[in-house]
Amino acid sequence: MSKWMQEWSTETVAPHDLKLAERPVPEAGEHDIIVRTLAVSLNYRDKLVLETGMGLDLAFPFVPASDMSGVVEAVGKSVTRFRPGDRVISTFAPGWLDGLRPGTGRTPAYETLGGAHPGVLSEYVVLPEGWFVAAPKSLDAAEASTLPCAGLTAWFALVEKGHLRAGDRVVVQGTGGVALFGLQIAKATGAEVIVTSSSREKLDRAFALGADHGINRLEEDWVERVYALTGDRGADHILEIAGGAGLGQSLKAVAPDGRISVIGVLEGFEVSGPVGPLLLKSPVVQGISVGHRRALEDLVGAVDRLGLKPVIDMRYKFTEVPEALAHLDRGPFGKVVIEF
């Protein structure tokens, strides 16, 4: 194993301050594992952290990104979960193993990789063994790297919290990473899936993945179309990706006693909507901020069992990180991944 590694980091919160530098590989502590990175999957959150800091207390030099897959190169003397040669993926919220989310009403927990903790955009990462899970056997490294955030977010919203059932009507907003995982998970469960998008070409690609219906939200009122498709009942589940005032439209489109999973902040960090549908329909409106390690392990098992294949829009080289980040602004169909 090399004693030196290259990693991307920044010394300040700024859109274009990332630099590639060489640093020594840290030593493994008693409970740490040293993982050689094979792929990193980018999330829109990574851009937000780099460009705004998102109000987080970042330590500089700051290494971005939270989602990676790799192979264990060495382990600390007390490590029991992994051994050299094992393929692993990171967890987004280390320390949240199962059950209720850590934190308090005053201070919700948000200690994640690529935020309060160092990121993974590096040739090697050295972190506690509990911060990883075994990678799926059926996916390559790039595909596996998409699970810790995008895959788990969709799984947590629909399966872990949503108790998705065959026959449910699911509205998926857009065709980004979380949305397409939602489409695939819902179809694997036997649900009926409605995809909304502003692109006819992306809707055609969503049909190829199994979507039952597509709505071009620039050409028609997506809420009215959901009513028409469901006989006025509405959607049992909505993956609310846009946020902002879009929550109001989701409140109109959701079925009585349905569920809205608020995931995205593309339209800002404030959400709004009419109180009438909220009171009269009694939907569950749940905020989803990824999920815990046990649910990620459940997702890994489902991926291998069901043959789910993450959708990767583009694979970039490790030296092409700025280009990969720029791709996020163009609205990828699925995920953007960096391969080492």
UniProtKB/TrEMBL annotation:
Residues 13-338 form the Enoyl reductase (ER) domain. CDD domains: MDR7. The keyword Oxidoreductase applies. It comes from the Bacteria. Pfam families: ADH_N (PF08240), ADH_zinc_N (PF00107). This is Alcohol dehydrogenase. GO terms for molecular function: alcohol dehydrogenase (NAD+) activity. It is an enzyme of class 1 (oxidoreductase). The keyword Repressor does not apply. Keywords: Oxidoreductase.
